[in-house]
Specification:
Chain B: It is a multi-pass membrane protein. The complex is a heterodimer of chains A (242) and B (220). Helix content of chain A is 38%, strand content 25%. Chain A is α/β, with parallel strands linked by helices. Classes of the chains: A alpha/beta (242), B mainly alpha (220). The structure holds adenosine-5'-diphosphate and magnesium ion. The site of adenosine-5'-diphosphate (ADP) has 10 residues of chain A, from helix 1.
Chain lengths: 242, 220
């Protein structure tokens, strides 16, 4: 049984069809790396999975919850499906710990003390125990992104969506974030990552998805796909970025 | 220029003037608190609420921002009785002030909400918060921080503008000044004193709001 099942999803913005029938099956523990040119629909696909965007046809089921327009229980869905963004999006008026504690206290109604204990645990996991009481403006980009990951982890998601989470970072800060993601992968977290880090996709990914013009153009085991891309589009893409 | 100031002639009326000053202060404080509450609700409705409610609020805001305060006040005090709603001078004054500041602060707060990066809202939603929870815990603090200076200025403007309520005989500072002047004919002294009182009140309010801002939005 797949944890996330995407069936023939179509999505348009006005007359611009951005997803043209995407299907994907993601099992528990999979680390899916989605690659592809800018504008190929990668972000839109991720955003459909946690209901930030609606789609016109097809179906998405995530951890048993059907993501289907207005009827979706978005709160329940998003408790199971976390998301980390390119721009970190930490809440600037809250410390690192308070950023992490917010959703558990507001959504899950756990006590401040319990939320703080969880915050300490997840911030330790991303290597930021000493920064619990720092404000986002006092942290580097890499540290901010690790807090953002910890903030998602505090809700104990079954799946974590990561949309180019290292693309806004200075090159020397990329690795500290990738190491955290790699550790999550090793611990069995199901991850769906849109990434431009080809080496990371090959070494850590269990599944590679190449999107092109709103479709899954090629998919498979990362090492095999990278070693022998079948389509000329992926050959060209790998040649450019690789 | 050989006018001789006779402030002593105001002394018999000190209690009238003090009452007027107190009235103006209470009027300002109450309409500030209630007006900002209205403004917050209005701004929330315009940005996070259903479209029809946003349009209702927009009409309210435009109606108030494009008519003189004194006409709004007269409408409430002299106009509404025609519909059977007869308010005392004091109630009418408070109501008009809240409605007026409510409209202006709706616009100010809305601008603050719209300046909050969309990504912060999406991050909040992605953490399973409802949009109202996101508004309350993620958006409003940032919005108020951004528009606090503008809101402070508007509060001062409204405080000074409150002098107009004397026109319906609500017993504020200006009403008290008019009253005293009509008794002792010391117009120069009375209105000079009133002007100084407003000036002091404005300066005091400004520094009070600044201090309050520092406490609420503690420095990073
Ligand atoms: N909110 C939106 N409104 C209109 N068009 C959009 C919106 N978001 C994305 N698009 C369009 O959808 C296409 C795919 O965008 P996106 O999913 O962000 O691609 P990617 O993440 O692969 O770069 C692009 O052509 C983009 O312009
Ligand atoms: Mg994208």
């Amino acid at each position: 049984m797949s944890l996330v099942s995407i069936r023939d999803v179509r999505k348009s913005f006005g007359t611009n069809e951005v997803l043209k029938g995407v299907s994907l099956d993601i099992a528990k523990g999979d680390v899916v790396a989605i690659i592809g040119r800018s504008g190929s629909g990668k972000s839109t696909l991720l955003r459909c999975i946690n209901g930030l965007e609606t789609y016109q046809s097809g179906s998405i089921v995530a951890d048993g919850i059907e993501v289907a327009g207005a009827a979706t229980n978005l709160r329940e869905l998003r408790r199971h499906v976390g998301m980390v963004f390119q721009q970190f999006n930490l809440f600037p008026h809250l410390t690192a710990a308070e950023n992490v504690m917010l959703a558990p206290t507001v959504v899950n109604k756990v006590s401040k003390a319990e939320a703080r204990a969880t915050a300490a645990e997840v911030l330790a996991k991303v290597g930021l125990s000493e920064k619990m009481d720092a404000y986002p403006s006092e942290l580097s980009g890499g540290q901010q992104q690790r807090v953002a990951i910890a903030r998602s982890l505090a809700m104990r998601p079954k799946v974590l969506l990561c949309d180019e989470i290292t693309s806004a970072l200075d090159p020397e800060l990329v690795n500290e974030v990738l190491r955290v993601v790699e550790q999550l992968a090793r611990e069995g977290m199901t991850l769906i990552l849109v990434t431009h880090e080809m080496r990371f996709a090959r070494d850590v990914g269990t599944k590679l998805v190449f999107m092109h013009h709103g479709k899954v153009h090629e998919e498979g085991v990362p090492k095999e796909v990278f070693a022998a891309p079948r389509t000329p589009e992926l050959q060209q893409f790998v040649g450019q970025v690789g | 220029m050989s006018y001789k100031l006779q402030f002593a002639e105001l002394l018999p009326y000190w209690n009238v003037l003090l009452y007027g000053l107190a009235f103006t202060i209470v009027l300002t404080v109450v309409s500030t608190v209630a007006g900002i509450a209205v403004g917050t609700a209005g701004a929330a409705a315009r940005t996070f609420g259903p479209g029809w409610l946003g349009r209702v609020v927009a009409v309210y805001v435009e109606l108030i921002r494009n008519t003189p305060f004194i006409v709004q006040l007269f409408f409430i005090f002299f106009g509404l009785p025609a519909l059977g709603l007869k308010l005392s001078e004091t109630t009418a004054a408070f109501l008009a002030m809240v409605i007026n500041l409510g409209a202006y602060s709706t616009e100010i707060i809305r601008a603050g909400i719209e300046a909050v990066p969309k990504g912060h809202i999406e991050a909040g939603l992605s953490l399973a918060m409802s949009k109202w929870e996101v508004l309350r815990h993620v958006v409003l603090n940032q919005a108020f921080r951004k528009i606090y200076p503008a809101l402070s200025s508007q509060i001062i403007i409204v405080m000074l503008g409150s002098a107009v309520v004397s026109q319906i005989s609500a017993e504020d500072l200006t009403y008290a000044a008019n009253f005293v002047a009509s008794r002792n004919f010391r117009n120069f002294e009375v209105y000079l004193l009133a002007a100084l009182a407003y000036l002091l009140l404005a300066l005091l309010t400004r520094s009070l709001l600044r201090a309050l801002g520092r406490v609420i939005f503690k420095a990073r």
